[in-house]
Amino acid sequence: MPQDLIRPMTSDQADYLRDESRLIGQAEWIAFPETEQQLREILASCRRSGRPVTIQGARTGIAAAAVPAGGVVLSLTRLNRVRGMKQNADGRYVLCAESGVILSRLRKQIEDRHFAVSDWDEPSRQIFEQFRRDRTQIFTPDPTEATASLGGMVACNASGARSYRYGPVRRHIQGLRVILADGQTLDLQRGREKAAGRTLNLTTEQGGQLRIDLPTYALPQVKSAAGYYAADDMDAVDLFIGSDGTLGVVSQIELVLQPLPDQIWGVTCFFGEEEQAWQFTEQVRAAGETGLLALEYFDRQALALLARYKAGHPAFARLELPQRPFGAAIYCELQGEREDQLLEAVARLGRQMEHAGASPEDSWVARTAFDRDQLLFFRHAAPECVNLEIDRNRQREPSLTKLGTDMSVPNDKLP
Fold first, then answer.
1. Domain 6-75 CATH assignment equals 3.30.565.10
2. pLDDT exceeds 90 at position 400
3. What are phi and psi for residue 26, nearest 5 degrees?
4. CA separation for the pair 128, 114 (Å, rounded)
5. Yes or no: domain 263-413 corresponds to CATH 3.40.50.300
6. Model confidence at 294: pLDDT above 80
């Protein structure tokens, strides 16, 4: 093994044995590649020596995908540069970023229109100057944990609240660079490398030929993260998005940006009974509200847990909660060009609450970025409280394991 790149694990690197799943693994070696060439060398060496590799990003996932079961931990945290910018055929800005870039950092750079461009090529710098003069852009995927890495988001095809409108990460990826287990490299562009039916033929940069027979199953028509993405005549890019690193290591990602909506408001609606929240959700979805970005559900237990942690944990002291208990809450996020459009949309939500048997008085409306951040803190606090609860109970029962899942069902299958 290249000893300067793959080193024995030490006791002060224990954090690399776990992620937000709260499971703890074990590994003998660890590597922190800083360049794509180093990444290729590490993977090729591990393949020759037969050592298993666990790929890690920011370790924010709750499915234990970053928890090692022996072998080598491959941390991509030092592959953290934004490499350039271009425009695609639709005129959208496209950022070229390494897998270890953290989402919150990237959002800030996009918002401030500030990147370290000294190493960018001249075409990238020219596009960046245009980007600085243009309207504000955003990268729309918004997973619960803003400290996720871009590579991790691609690996699990992350979604988040705004996937209701924008869809998961897959829809916003134009290209990938992927390092295979033997160190060979694939450079993939959406629309360029495509399957013929269910057969995909790819050529690596080193000249290797790959024939991939894609799965023959039909994907469900609801949100699903099960199995590899497969469809007739599909883009090769889509096979690697959501593959959890099992097919190769993504080293670089091309992200498609979108113009920031002129105005974004958040609305949290509270309901005395869960059935009212279900009826409200069905009405909102059936109405086809064009400006709806997000629609998220909190049950009675989640609201009670938030209230308990607000009362007893300093980290949640600023958490805003209703004055009385409720059976459920629905968080809605709306976009529009003008304030009057959003006022009308909020009024429609109020009428839909009344139709479901609830009161519009039992709702919060966030019209500014500060107020919306407060509502987002409310949303993100729920999984944080669950993790703290798991940690607290694990002190009494060390073998306790967290099982978390998302569910997606058609409207007509709701209770």
1. no
2. no
3. -150, 150
4. 9
5. no
6. yes
